[in-house]
Amino acid sequence: MLPRSPSPIRRGRLAFGAVGFLVLTAGVFWYQFSRLGVDAAQPQWDNLRWSYLVLLLFCLPIETATCALRTWVMTRILEPRVTLWTCIKAEWANVAISTLTPTQSWGGPGQIYVLSRGGASVGTSLTIMLLSCIATLVALLGLALYSLVVASTDGAWPLFLTVVWSFVGIGSAMAVVAIWPGLFRAALAALPRRMAAKLAELIDTYRADVSRFLRQGKAAFACVCLLSVPFPIVRALIAYLCLRFLGIEASDFRHIFEAQLVLILFEFFAPSPGGAGIMEVASLAVMGELVPAGYAPYYNLLWRSSTLYLPALTGFVCLAWAVFHDTSRSIRSTWDRSLCTDGSQSAGGRARAEVVVTSVEL
After folding, report:
1. Nearest CA-CA partner of 136 in 22, 313, 265, 44
2. 84 in a domain, yes or no?
3. Does residue 259 surpass a pLDDT of 90?
4. According to DSSP H, which parts of 180-229 are helical?
């Protein structure tokens, strides 16, 4: 009997999220392209400015690199065996899983899965994910303050309150678990013994990691927060380059940056897989004054491909390879145990087993 393949989160939820993401994405782009009038001015091949596309391609890895680097800074203290390449793959996996979960900020299971494969325990991977979440909220809080006080952007106040309450809620929960773990251990008594033991182990690991990180990594956490700042600038720059590539010269970078801040804040809390459907509509609402109606679907497709679809696709490739490798290793281990325990197995049977294992590995 073959073992169950490892999975970051339950397959049923992944499948449901994938269907939702694909249906919402296809539906919103079908609607936007179908609404284009015959007389509407649309991008012309000869008018595309290809030099901006080259700059756009150079910008694409920056967000992944900075987010992976902040994870690597934390692993230097909590689990030095984890490499920078593992952190990069973990960031891609985070983006991929975020397209299959109720909001785009729920991609943590993918990150935990890849980090745990790279040498960190599940508890330490969970700690890194939570610390990354806090650092991201610190950066979002700064963006919300800028939008509210400096830019005076419409709709900034409710987003500011959302970020504040998220920061207070998540930060308070993390502090309570780290300071008073006994409160949660008492609640675990009502759970099945095996589940309670696993959760208790996660709590103990989390508490020990947070304590060690606060003792040794105060400067590192400041660095992690600073590394959370470049991504909104890069997101705004990507939007700017998308507009310029299509030949749209409607506004300067500051105007585009301030408009994109609202989208960045909204994207983390949009209630759909990967923000599908919602973000495309919100983008047209926020950028409507800058993007002509005939250009809007093309801009949206280019913008979403640059900020989500390409890194998510890369993440799915990394996850598929990891799951395949873990599954093949589990199958090989099962066959090896079977061969060791069955001393009466014939040479022909052993040969057949070796063929099966080899085919799985290939």
Report:
1. 265
2. yes
3. no
4. 181-187, 193-216, 218-227
